[in-house]
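User: These chains co-purify. Model them together.
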Amino acid sequence: MATDTESLAARSREAAGALARLPTATKNACLTELAGRIESGIAQIKEANEKDLAAARSTGLGDAKLRRLTLSDAGIRQMAAGLRQVAALPDPVGGVTRDTMLPSGLRVKKVRCPIGVILMIYEARPNVTIDAFALCFKSGNACILKGGREAAHSNQVLSGMAKASLEGHGVCPDAVTLLTGSDREEMKALLKLSQYIDLVIPRGGTDLIRFVHEHARIPMVQHFHGVCHIFVDATADVDRAVEVCTTAKTSGPAACNAVECYLVHEKIAPVFLPKLVARLAAEKVELRGDEATRKFAAGAKPATEEDWGREFLDLIVACRVVPDIGGAIEHIRRHGSNHTESILTADAANAGRFLDEVQSSCVLVNASTRFNDGFSLGLGAEIGISTSRIHAYGPMGLEELTTQRYVVEGFYQTR
Amino acid sequence: MATDTESLAARSREAAGALARLPTATKNACLTELAGRIESGIAQIKEANEKDLAAARSTGLGDAKLRRLTLSDAGIRQMAAGLRQVAALPDPVGGVTRDTMLPSGLRVKKVRCPIGVILMIYEARPNVTIDAFALCFKSGNACILKGGREAAHSNQVLSGMAKASLEGHGVCPDAVTLLTGSDREEMKALLKLSQYIDLVIPRGGTDLIRFVHEHARIPMVQHFHGVCHIFVDATADVDRAVEVCTTAKTSGPAACNAVECYLVHEKIAPVFLPKLVARLAAEKVELRGDEATRKFAAGAKPATEEDWGREFLDLIVACRVVPDIGGAIEHIRRHGSNHTESILTADAANAGRFLDEVQSSCVLVNASTRFNDGFSLGLGAEIGISTSRIHAYGPMGLEELTTQRYVVEGFYQTR
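Assistant: Joint model of the two components:
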């Protein structure tokens, strides 16, 4: 099995060479054709998905996982729309990020080029098969997609459509490879193939990330958990702060950029907390507060030590009253996950200090943490949100799926 | 011992927080002060270096290693000059690389910030202690310097001077930490501390790189071997090509950007090779050629299969005659190390094709491979030349020692 995996990876490497130089028009044509194939193949996709769902139900897969596994008509159309969106984005490959003429007479350019072969490891969601392929392909990378076994039938149909679209335009179908096994030994073998694979991006639960971190001998960009904080400063606009704080949880309770903890300045707590509590109660959000919070938040449960730095993945938020901005920053330093933090304030000095001292991948002033994703930040699309500080920090769009090399022109200079 | 290492790393992490926000002027003052301390401490540095050298001689360390270990007056002054150079370079921290106002009204900036804690692992050269500290510090990173045990006394004195310079300006001396043990178990423990260390940069021989690659659970940027090629196309300027080809080896026979293999177009071989051979002979460079090469290169030794893709680290170069540019590109694809490749040609189409199809970290037209370093490419300085395609590819200067985060300003937008 390891040998099969290795030969597949070797073919990905081979495909990557040509992909790096594929004209933008050809890439866009492939993506657009795939969008059409998906739209006209809804019945076929749903049939495959139904097989996965039936198997999942019979093995007693939980409701949340079943939901992620399900491909609805709207979800399928969304995949097609996503492909057309990626086709419309600028091609990052060949982009010149520096162009200087040096005293030596050398003209030195820094030019974007694909990373090479990207291994994407993900769990139940079959739409990731299409989303990840689209981004890797548009940025000139070959991809190896290791989806969850639960979604094997759905992924097989989708990657088959991708391969057919490539072949229709004379592109080597090895540009996308689907692996459906769930053998951890196979995964370990895959994670050691540094001669063929340039980057691994795991997307999934903590166990998956830890497993990859432990076994990868390939560079990894991790999309780890988001323990996001909002600091409500003394000068925040109370009503609008209630709105931002509430929706930063309710608009996506299990999203990685959802707020998990409010830090409230003690001066604003008596006014702010009662309003927040009322609003959260109306939205059925559970609040877990420290003692100071509970003085103004009737009905809040006591927060335990474990509630700080916890990703609830549900309609639950922790809350702590802090004496000042320093207390908020210190709490974030100890309990944050470097994902997303926001300050709500009218005080420019405090905004500046917060932006300066909190070094998360995305730090916001007077805006919801939910804006930390590739779409909201203007990247057009994203393959994940990195909490690694190497290569990419924050949402990874097309540019973050490239690297940069030096291209130098001279007239026979020596050194 | 592992616990000691861990607590040192934890202190580095602590120091990194403040370093990220240190004013440029303070950083420059520390670097300049250190330059002064080094210049006025030459006697003290040489005394420590003499201890290392005596110990090294008694254990029978080879000549090449002894040379690398030796700090001459000129070498010490060069370290001080390097510090002043780094002080004069622009501070990358806080640099804004994108600034957009989105339709949502969010102002989104991408801002350079330090990586955090950088572990540098190197071998005999004590000057790396100062060079690596200077670059890490200027880019706002704390560094852990794991130098070779042979250089322990020299490194101790140098890092002591660095710490004293920091303290003189109120900067936490934990910004630089020297480890002098050579226990591989200690190194393994260090390479697992991903909670404290953000990046490891190994610089040294193949064994060291392999060891770090095997044991690191921390992101790594590798500075691996350079097997650099020059393709002499049919239309190259013969005399200038001889000059470039010769000096690309002789100006630094063991440098990673030195040429290791000439690929010569068969049409130019009869004119070019005899001239090249004469020039190489005068410079005492050994040429190892394939059969076609030896027809025109009297005295060239036969190249064996192992000579392709080999880093000679000496006054030796391999040579192969190729039928066309495709043959050259294919040879590089099979035997290159993604470090540096150059084409010498008057044919613009071939230059374009070479730049396009050879995806090494630095590809040159009509210039010596020796130009692939941070100084020659205009970065001001470098901490190494990465052959990893992740994070940095090619020379790593100050900018490559930073990452980028998102800073977002709004007016209570929700999503």
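DSSP finds 14 helices and 16 strands in chain B.
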